[in-house]
Specification:
about 375 residues, alpha/beta, FAD/NAD(P)-binding domain, D-Amino Acid Oxidase, Chain A, domain 2, 10 helices, 19 strands, binds flavin-adenine dinucleotide
Amino acid sequence: MKSTADVVIIGGGIMGCSIAYHLTRKGIRNVVLLEKEAMLGTGATGRCSGGFRHQFSTEINIRLSQESVRMMQAFPEEVGEEITFHQDGYLFLLTEAGAWESFRRCAELQRRLGVPVELLGSEEILRLNPNLSLEGVLGATYCSKDGISDPLGILHGYAKRAREAGVEICMEAEVVEIERQGGTVSGVRTRAGRIAALVVINAAGPQAGLVGDMAGVEVPVRPTRRHVFVTHGFPGSPPDHLMVIDFPSTFYFHKEGDGVLMGMSDPSEPYSFVQSVDWTFLERLVPVAVHRYPVLAQAKVARSWAGLYEMSPDAHPILGEAPELPGFFIAAGFSGHGFQQGPVVGKLISELVADGRTSTMDISSLSLHRFRENRLVQEQQVV
Ligand SMILES: Cc1cc2nc3c(=O)[nH]c(=O)nc-3n(C[C@H](O)[C@H](O)[C@H](O)COP(=O)(O)OP(=O)(O)OC[C@H]3O[C@@H](n4cnc5c(N)ncnc54)[C@H](O)[C@@H]3O)c2cc1C
């Protein structure tokens, strides 16, 4: 491991790898990426559902998606690696008048920004998936440009190109201390040695709060467990990769192999780093799932895992340099949307580090300042 670098990145998830790659595109190659585990992508990135969508409630999240989806589409040309990319749409089913009204208002905002979102009634919904039960459904929003892509394919594509360009990627290199001198960052200490660096980037996913503490910077990111269940094939399994979300329950599914990948949030889940599977949660998910998608009654679960969402107080990312510690940058708090925001966030952070400002889009509203100044920007459409 090098003893000095221009930039140290903490975390080998999609954020760390995307940032590393984009720094090299900016000509910054003396970079070390430190990952505590033995492999890249074993954190939230390797446990996520792979969805991307433009259907958000705030302009900044919509703009982040627009650029990120463009980057995923262009990934084979720009990064030189093939990835899985299904643009079969996201369908949000709404059953409560207030939420339906709010989704309709958000659809207007999305359309104003150029996103082709449609409001659908029962017939159009059933054309997309005839096996859904629409009991209680008032309507749906649908965007054909949303879809499912390839978290680990994208992560490894970025990591491969970053390595070729000179980035040193160190595994089993847990950062245990962030060193400071004269009010700025001066380096990190890991279990494998020390590295001096004037720029340190916290891309530690659900652990970003702990890494913030090492720097004396409060990074309000809370980890919370989410389960994923994958079924074997069954009669009536979906023909394409449409993501269906029953918004009031947050139950969602999309095609995976011959069956489906499905999940649901659990409002009673406490903040914690626990990632073991609690099979009793499946007992609570099944009735909700079968109510909305009755053919699932014939499906058998093939496998399951759990991972951590990294919640920020307003469900928006925290991006930029910590005001109280020059040289300490944060890319965290993606609140369950970090896979799809990975490409664009890597680009934005590389612009901030290399140029001191972003040119792709203005992300000043996402800085850590907002918590101090009480300028929160609440995302409503969290699943
Ligand atoms: C079940 C589930 C479903 C999801 N579905 C979606 C989805 O459909 N679409 C979407 O966009 N997002 C989804 N997400 C969210 C998405 O997975 C995350 O937002 C994203 O992967 C965050 O990437 P990251 O690189 O910041 O974090 P991670 O992938 O967790 O990477 C952080 C890395 O930092 C390392 N690390 C931590 N502390 C240290 C340290 N001290 N020293 C060195 N290394 C350290 C960790 O080991 C880890 O590898 C889902 C998440 C879960 C759990």
